[in-house]
Specification:
The protein has 128 residues and is of the alpha+beta class. The protein is 23% helix and 40% strand. A five-stranded antiparallel β-sheet has the order 1-2-3-4-5. It has a three-stranded antiparallel β-sheet with strand order 6-7-8. The protein starts with a helix and ends with a helix. This is PH domain-containing protein.
């Protein structure tokens, strides 16, 4: 319980059902596209599908403006998983793609297994 509360305050990602990423995300899926896993922070989130990485970026004060970024796995240049140490409460997944200057970064609650799951799926998909 405390971990979920801390995650909500700090924005740490956790595994969710894909529909929880919102209507705009669901509308952006191709017919027949399969969501392998979805993760959410307080406002934003991302999903790994059988074809691409999809980022959901909520903007504005109310978060009603939504941007869905699509990154095909073939555009991923590299990625890393940094696990939390003794005093850190989170793991961090970073993903570099061809179009961005800086990596996309996602924090996960340490010990929940979500970071390792996202890293594993990303590894399988980038490998081809």
């Amino acid at each position: 319980m405390l971990g979920k509360l801390l995650g909500a305050v700090t924005g740490d990602a956790g595994r969710i059902e894909p529909e929880a990423l919102g209507e705009r995300f669901v509308e952006s899926l191709f017919p027949g596209e399969t969501v392998l896993a979805a993760f959410r922070t307080v406002r934003d989130g991302f999903a790994l599908t059988d074809w691409r990485l999809m980022l959901v970026n909520r903007q504005g004060v109310t978060g009603s403006k939504t941007e869905v970024v699509s990154i095909p796995y073939r555009s991923v240049l590299r990625f890393s998983l940094e696990t939390g140490g003794t005093l850190e409460l989170d793991d961090e997944l970073k993903i570099w793609d061809r179009a961005s200057d800086a990596p996309w970064s996602f924090s996960f609650r340490r010990g929940g297994g979500a970071a390792a799951e996202a890293h594993r799926i990303l590894s399988e998909r980038v490998r081809g």
